[in-house]
Amino acid sequence: MTEEIDLSKLPPAEPYDKARDEAQRARLMKVWQTPTGWRRISAVNNSSVGKWYLLTSFAFFAFAGFLALLMRAQLAVPNNDLLSQSLYNQLFTLHGTAMMFLFAVPIFEAVAILILPEILGARDLPFPRLSAFGYWCFLIGGIFVCGSVFFGVAPDGGWFMYAPLSSNPDYSGLGADIWLLGLSFIEVSSIAAAVELIVGVLKSRPPGMRLNLVPLYCWYVLVVAGMILFAFPPLIAGDLLLEMERAFGWAFFDPDRGGDPLLWQHLFWIFGHPEVYIIFLPSIALIATILPTFAGRPMVGHSWIVLSAVGVAFLSFGLWVHHMFTTGLPEISLSFFSAASEAVAVPTGIQIFCFIATMLVSKVRRSVPMLFAGGALAIFVFGGLTGVMVALVPFDWQAHDSYFVVAHLHYTLIGGMLFPLFAGVHYWYPFVTQKKMSDKLGRWSFWLMFGGFNLAFLPMHWTGVMGMPRRVWTYDVTDGWAVLNMVSTVGAFIFAAGFVVLAVNVLWPRGKAPLVERNLWNAGTMEWSAEVPDKPWGVRSIPYIHTRYPLWEQKELLGEMDRGEWFLPDAEEGKRELIITDILDARPLYVQRVGGPSYLTLGSAFCLGAVFILATFHLWTLTLLFGAGFVGFTLWWLWTGTSEIPEKPEKEAGRGLVLPTYAQGNNAPGWWAVFITMTGDMTAFMGLVFSYFFYWTALPNFLPDAAKLPGFGWLVIGLALLLAGWITALLARERLAGGGTAQAMALLIAGVPLAALGIGAWCWAAWSAGLNPTETSFDATVWVLILWMGLHLLLDAVMRLYVAARIWRGRCTPRYRADSANLTLFTHFLALTAVVIFALLALFPMLMGVV
Amino acid sequence: MARSEGKKTVPPGEAPRVIDQGSVWILVAAPSIWAAHFLLSYWVAAIWCAKLGRGTALAEPRWIIAALGALCIAVIAGLAALAIRRYGGVFVIFEEITESSERARDKFIGHVALLLCVLSAVAILFTVIPGMVLGQC
């Protein structure tokens, strides 16, 4: 039991002193200043990175929307030849891909990076440079994928890239590689953002913001970031398998060699369905934040909304097969997924009912954000209802791959995601720019989009029921779909006109327009505490929060914050500082120093981008060179910007509170970041394990004869060596804590050859049994598991040498040893991976009576 | 603890307090049980049908699924009791657990955990239904 600090009983602030206030503000300004001119690209402030992220996502949205207009133009009349069939295939693939990967998910990250720290009354997120790194990855990957259409080599296999169309290079050209590698790269930035946001919500809350006081938006961010961690990695595993088959002929999806194209569908949709909720929940979170402001009262059923966010997050992982109802799986399997698809409507409905209840018990102020929010609910509920229809297996058999599904998914995504987002744009625009958007243009854009949307997509329900399949390039007049298609096309262009009005409204230069007043909507959440005009430091002093809607319920708060009466009002040491708090009650734990502007993240992202792009063209030497560059930049970044030994062990944080300036082990955000990243990594690994068991279930003779199994003895030796390597990391941690720096370094370095010998023994086990990954799916699966282990051991070796070097240079010491704790955590996951692989390769065949 | 007689206020110790005290694991426990039941049911049926072929009767898997369901719901009921007794969770619609105290935070977690128990139990029942209805693969 730890001792509770009662923050409400802290001593009173010292009397206001104008000179002190100005001096503190000047120091804060110097530390948090955003670089200007060309150096602006080195900025890492959440306000800069968030804005870039937002504008870039909207640029990709406009691009993907333009592709949609081209498609609608092609479909406007029967037998149209405006576009070639090949171009049409590229357009719909790129439209779906860009909307999903380059708009819907990144925009969640963009909005969260922009507003989450301010809602939490924090100065920034705990890893600002990681946000910047993620942004640059996103930009480079996005341009690469979208740019391909100008060279006629865009992916054309549909946004889901089904094998064998995508796995056989004869059917699909460079486009499939661009899709696979480009998007894997973008997934890196999503996972980076997820790590940042989870740690942000859990550890960077303002002192006093206990779990029951956390704003709804933060709950949603936490839930969605957690979902990304479990949803994206299976696709990364799938991407790995598919690219190994495309580039090196490994047998994963080719039925002639014991592969199975259905495996891709499983891995894709285990990602793909939660993805829909990953897109939907953060947008609903915007409504949950906007609505109380205009209702002028707290949300009804706050905890019911938390329940439904958590409930949806779980249930959405049990829906993936409802995209595969027509693949011939046993009916009993289909009905489980049908049942879960119906069950997920329960928590989804609860959220909507909470919103309606809040509106019913209050008098809602009319405003443009509420107009969009209302339109969103109307459209989304309609899409949800058709969702309940297609969740039923017999109905889905009729509607599958028809325009009915196109209508359904656009109703859910545009109602559930796009309209709430536009509500958010109108609502938070003054927060970002301190200027107000035109209400008149706002209403115009809403009605154009709302009308245009329904005109475009409502008729598609009928076109679908009348039998028009998705993704067809053209149709004949005798099909009878001509009128409805023309209506849809007209609607699509009206919708686009509405978006143009919105874009003009957003981008209109408002240099001379008056600044808005502070907290112009009279909101209750912390982001509106920002001073007008805005300051780069986020909050003047980090406040003590003890209510759900601090700006409504803590009347004195703004004045206290402005006068610097709360925590960290100064930057005496010239460092960017945040307060890290604990998960349950947000007790202040320590002062974290974060990195300022840097080109290192940019260099790191650039090299990693080059690796993925060059690999697409199989330029392996250059790929390796840039890979080395990536490792170099990343190590440089870590070396100079993380786990720095503070100049003093603790500092005065204001109000008599003294906090440590260094944390290690599970107190440090870095430790949590490793833990969260490795959880995602384990999920990807589970994707490979799933593949193994999938083959075993689907194929009658997946496991070969005993002679063709990897040698048991060598597998045991390999495992023993790998576990010995893990033990060296544990001992190194102990020795370092006990003061034995030389022994710690020796142990860390000794782990490298142990790992090399261990993986060597496994490779020999597979090699000597004659396993050839291009021959059968079993051989390929064994080799991909060994490859997975090998890649992780490579990373392990780099990290060990890095930590040993840090100890050698006195940057990781017996007292300040966060690096060593983080490395040890990483090796725990590695050991677990090794044990699971051993069980799959050595024990499972034995259990099945093969040996 | 406030500063008294010029003494400085130092934050509490090291423990992350997730598992030991006032833990949040109870929030994810019930839906995780749903997930486990869902996956086990799916695997049992999928392996049964794949290894024995189409048209096989589902008599044995049916009872495995139902028994697993009953077991899981029993565990969830236990969790619900815990959420009520230890955390003070209540089943109300207009919750106003906005007090700033450890007890209120516990009550909030208990309340949400209780709601998640109900949702998870309902979702498990949803999964059991097809097991009861379908006679063969």
Automatic annotation (TrEMBL), chain A:
Subcellular location: Cell membrane
Catalyzed reactions: 4 Fe(II)-[cytochrome c] + O2 + 8 H(+)(in) = 4 Fe(III)-[cytochrome c] + 2 H2O + 4 H(+)(out)
Domain Cytochrome oxidase subunit I profile: 32-536
Keyword Heme: yes
NCBIfam families tied to this protein: CtaD_CoxA
Species this chain originates from: Alloyangia pacifica
Protein name (Swiss-Prot/TrEMBL): cytochrome-c oxidase
EC number(s) from the headed UniProt entry: 7.1.1.9
GO molecular function: cytochrome-c oxidase activity; heme binding; metal ion binding
All residue ranges annotated as the Heme-copper oxidase subunit III family profile domain in the record: 672-846
Entry keyword set: Cell membrane, Copper, Electron transport, Heme, Iron, Membrane, Metal-binding, Plasmid, Respiratory chain, Translocase, Transmembrane, Transmembrane helix, Transport
GO annotation terms (biological process): electron transport coupled proton transport; oxidative phosphorylation; respiratory electron transport chain
Pathway(s) of this molecule: Energy metabolism; oxidative phosphorylation
Automatic annotation (TrEMBL), chain B:
Superkingdom of the source species: Bacteria
Keyword annotations from UniProtKB, A to Z: Membrane, Plasmid, Transmembrane, Transmembrane helix
Residue ranges crossing the lipid bilayer per the database entry: 24-50, 62-84, 108-134
Protein name: Uncharacterized protein
Annotated organism of origin: Alloyangia pacifica
